[in-house]
Amino acid sequence: NVFCMKYIKVYDTFRKSFTGAVHRKLSPSIFIIMLLFFFSLSRYFFWCAGIVFEDFPLENFWQYLDVKWLMTNLLESCYYLHSQPPTFNLFLGSILKLEHDPSVYFHIIYLIFGFILYYSLYQICRYLRVSSGFSIVFTTLFIISPQAILYENWLFYTYPVTSLLTLAALFLCNFYSTQKSYWGFLFFFDIALICTIRSAFH
Q1: How many other C-beta atoms can be found within 10 angstroms of the C-beta atom of residue 161?
Q2: Cβ distance 125 to 134 under 8 Å?
Q3: Which run of H or of E encompasses 35?
Q4: What is the spatial distance between Cα 147 and Cα 134, in angstroms, rounded to a whole number?
């Protein structure tokens, strides 16, 4: 019992000293740079391992308009499409109209969604008073999980919607803590955007 009490006392002293040092020496921008570094490094390793972006749903999934309509008659096709909200098909058609390989652009945009998800989760953890170190560890473990890698490299609206939902939660946290109206506007705009992507949120 005496040993346990001494260990707890030493550990608590060390934890407070270490946490104080981290907060004194490392600014929030440093942690954002660390997130960007870990994210870029992990995606490079997965790319070296042979993980590539899969855009086969574009020509096979019933949720999407025919590729020919997306490229030649995008606005009218989205207007008359009753089975799906228009935004994701508008996104697909806009990328397909570019001259270069659309798969590259899809991949880049999904990587951006991945970092948005990573950053939002980290900031939510910090809002919940999780330490910076643990927040980075937890969010990094999530962002390199098989599920995250699968959906990040699969052309479907699940990953963008997940990123936008997490970002909406961050906007709501910021609105609650600051009471600034623009955070509330961003929150409702984000939720409205999700509703125009996936009908399950109607």
Answers
A1: 19
A2: yes
A3: helix 28-48
A4: 21
Q: Is the pTM of this model over 0.85?
A: no
Determine contact, residues 136/31, Cβ cutoff 8 Å. yes
Both tokens of residue 18?
């270490």
Q: Which amino acid is at 45?
A: F
Q: What is the DSSP string of 123-183?
A: HHHHHTT--HHHHHHHHHHHHTSHHHHHHHTB-STHHHHHHHHHHHHHHHHHHHHH--HHH
- Please, what's the b/e burial string for 84-122 (b: 16 or more CB within 10 A of its CB; e: otherwise)? bbbbbbbbbbebbeeeeebeeebbeebbebbbbbbbbbb
Give the integer Cα–Cα distance in Å for 33 and 177: 24
- Mean per-residue pLDDT pooled into runs of 10, the chain (202 residues): 44 46 56 89 89 86 86 87 88 86 91 96 92 87 91 93 96 92 95 92 81
What pLDDT sits at residue 188?
96
Cα 80 versus chain centre, distance:
30
Contacts of 17 (CB under 8 A, 6+ apart): none
